[in-house]
Amino acid sequence: MAKAWWKEAVVYQVYPRSFQDSNGDGIGDLRGIRDRLDYIKQLGATVIWLNPIYASPNDDNGYDISDYQAIQPDFGTMAEFDQLLEAAHARGLKIVMDLVVNHTSDEHHWFIESLKSKDNPYSDYYLWADPVDGHAPNDWESSFSGSAWQYAPERQQYYLHLFSKKQPDLNWREPAVRHSVYDLMRFWLDKGIDGFRMDVINFIGKPATFDNDSPSPINMPQVQDYLKEMNREVLSHYDVMTVGEMPGTTPALAREYTGFDTHELNMIFQFQHTGVDLDQKFGKWVHHPFKLTTLKKIMDRWQVGLDGKAWNSLYWNNHDQPRVVSRFGNDSPEFRERSAKMLGAVLHYQQGTPYIYQGEELGMTNNAGFTKLSDYRDIESLNGYREWVDEKGELTPEQMLAGLQVASRDNARTPMQWGTKPNAGFCPAGVTPWIMVNPNYVTINADQEVRDQNSVFNFYRQMNLLRAANPIITYGDFTPLAEDDEEVWAYQRHYEGQTLTLVANWTARDLKRACAATAGELLQSNYPDDLGETLRPYEVKVYLQ
Ligand code: TEU
Ligand code: CA
């Protein structure tokens, strides 16, 4: 398999709002990120992905962009961005930016113009449709509750918004839209950034007309034409990495979007594994226990299905997902660290580029103490409550609040826990952060974990060092083991005559398994010794032979 720097990368995701406040307004900022670059370097990550930092009215925390070539004032200035990029590059760290071009903010000047009339240069920049019998053209729903159509009296038409009504969808059929996007991409690439994470990029294809028989606007064939054009026009002229965020994809689709010879993207974020515990009807607001075999089968299909043909991204967490140690591990004081390390190893020793979401390397948890609706900030959570409790009345306030505690995106958005100072060192004492700090910062924080050789942080650091030293971790192929086991996750990797074996106990009990027997040199484990076939609670062992 051809080598590439983005295959060997370890990406650290920074959610700028919640990373480090440098000027005492309770909001993380670019200076704050710059001040913490050495921490990211020490962890052994090689690439930083920044969530959107562009000018935005903040209806969806920056995913509603009003100017792609300006910095959100809360975060700083363009000069500070340039300094951040330079400081990162000086440390050998690359920076990947979020590219949000399925939609803009309704306050972007393209939309302001588009709204004015049906015959101006921006009229067709968005997806406008005439009312049908006084109603929206079809029954599509927004990801953030309610209809995906909003009536605009100015044009006496509806516009499409697959997310908030302040996030109108762009019309990619219009060449001027595509070329405007390519221009803004070049603006950032010419500054020297190292790639893009592309927001819901498989949603950009849309049907030419809208009615109730319109095909789903996800994974339409046009998406591939647009991505090939984008690659030809822009990406192929730079040495950058690309990762497309793509809900609703399968390994077969991923082979098309990211195949080594298809000239679209390097890798995608898929969502099959993050769907295992969701409800058919209520989605993320009602959680179900899931079988380990279901989760393993999904991951195995991606591993085997892409091997040699396309490239996987590996993630448990991001700014949209609840904290993995609370979701798939065990966040009780007894098992939090062990299970956080086990989850990290199970993910990072698979084939693909791993993504670490800020705080994951500390084993940060859900449940910051959000008990009432006003503790939440996220539009998806607030709209979800309105839909299921206030409008449909199908969940009680207690049920919905319980659902939010488990699944709200705000679980991942609480401030980074740097130390034991008030506000966890995220912002100065006496300042109210934009969202609550998890009170467990007193025991879970970076200062302590960096010093403690047995911490989750140092386990992640060790994984990154081992990856850099052992090409089998990046390039080895993948064979699942113990596929029908409901308690143990095990697999092997092979590369140039070497075999790497991982065995992990997903339970809080001792287990005995033949596949856990010593298999070469113990490369990494979350216990100080090796009991062979006996696996202790959440034990993970990685052997190299
Ligand atoms: O998310 C897209 C997406 O489909 C989901 O993960 C969604 O955010 C939600 O959690 C479904 O329950 C991307 C961004 O990552 C997200 O933060 C934005 O809100 C969204 O696009 C719109 O730009
Ligand atoms: Ca600030």
From TrEMBL:
InterPro entries: GH (IPR017853), GH13_cat_dom (IPR006047), Glyco_hydro_b (IPR013780), O16G_dom_2 (IPR045857)
GO molecular function: hydrolase activity, acting on glycosyl bonds
Keyword Cell membrane on entry: no
Domain of life: Bacteria
UniProtKB keywords: Glycosidase, Hydrolase
Family classification: Belongs to the glycosyl hydrolase 13 family.
Domain Glycosyl hydrolase family 13 catalytic intervals: 13-413
Organism name: Lacticaseibacillus hegangensis
Protein name: Alpha-glucosidase
Pfam hit, one: Alpha-amylase
E.C. numbers: 3.2.1.-
Listed SMART domains: Aamy
